[in-house]
Predict the 3D structure of the following.
Amino acid sequence: MALYLTITARASRAFAFAPSAVTTLSRSSPAIASTKATPSSPSRLFSTTEEIDTAASSTTDETANLKSPFLQTMRDRGFLFQCTNLSELDTLLSSPETSPGLPAYLGFDATADSLHVGSLLQIMILRHYQQSGHKPIVLIGGGTSKVGDPTGKDESRVLLTDEVIRKNMDGISSVFEKFLTFETKGEGGTKTKSREAIMVNNDEWLSELKYLQFLRDYGTHFTINRMLSFESVKQRLSREAPFSFLEFNYMILQAYDFLELNRRYGARLQLGGSDQWGNMISGVELGRRVDGASLFALTAPLITTSDGKKMGKTAGGAVWLNGDKLSEYDYWQFWRNTSDEDVIRFLKLFTELPLEEIAEMENWKGADVNKAKIVLADEATALLHGRECLKAIHETIDNMFKGGKGSSTESLNRIFVTDEDMASGGVMIIDLIVRLELATSKKEARRLIQGGGAKLNEIKVDDENAVVTAADFNESKEITLRAGKKRAGVVELY
């Protein structure tokens, strides 16, 4: 799932700090034609590495003395990485005259029919923003999804049809309702409250643009020289795969999104990941040059695990947020399998536990660290799927791994086979393993069996050509397949 992400090479070199550290904030020149900044400029950006380094020396006091509850939360929980004009933004967010319901946005492209856990950090930022009394705008990239974000990609994205984009938008939209409170409609139309979230689609304005008029109005504010200096562009140009003019336009469209959202909804702040930095400050400066708007950009660090892996992927594939793509049990297990080195950091980022409680857990050693992982899994799963699902998950854990009595499999991923399947000779066990997503391919399923990691109703499967027949099903018309110690699924006969 492509968030709006790009980082400038200069900012990356100057501010490559550990994500877990209290942030040092960077300001870098955008892909905008240079203009002389004056002391009264609404958004002061720096154009040299020396200026950035000088600015960095003063940011410790800035972050220590923040007044805005939102920025304090970002700082204390490890979200804060880069920001334009932090002191001005802090004043804006904490001012009684301007702060209630101040709109800020974060964009999500519709490149798949579900977000995965790599997008969860951004969703949590929006949630904290709303809980601090402000108005989140969820921008769905129905228009930019037609172009494709080149950030972090070795080759061009597959062009999506309008039908696929609409399907993907429907798939990703529902998850936000679990984390945010949206505007509701009653008699007389929409009842707008200052902090209620809204969801908008940038296809509304991008698809209406007239090409020549857009180039004349906004093309003069961007320079090819600066755009070519973006790290995402340089990486793509160094690859064998071509970098299309279509993708090259993505950063301009993202900058224009900020301008349009400010005009339509009064958005003053764009939120995003740190590899969005270049595109985001381009939007800040475009708003200043075209409309004289005082806009801000704030990024969070890109989260990796302690072993350097990107959040959102496992050996079994993406960790999806939609329940129809990943079961509640498997989502819980993802968090339970967090490494010892990551558990405290993830408790701060992906739960709402008070920091005082997390600080106490930081002193836990040995077997108690596993208790902290269970707390992390419970709290993260409850935020996404509701706390009521935890009882079934824990019952399943007890039954499968602790010798508990009973046969609850309610929280496990489940597939179905028919009497007709059984009458025609049954179903090969490797096919069931793949359908349950316990393996990504038949080849991987065979390796699982050969390694002794596959079990059918607690009996090890030795034959990779084994077939499940009607005789394998118990009175409840279901069987349990396991891959290793912690992954399992149910096959139900109906």
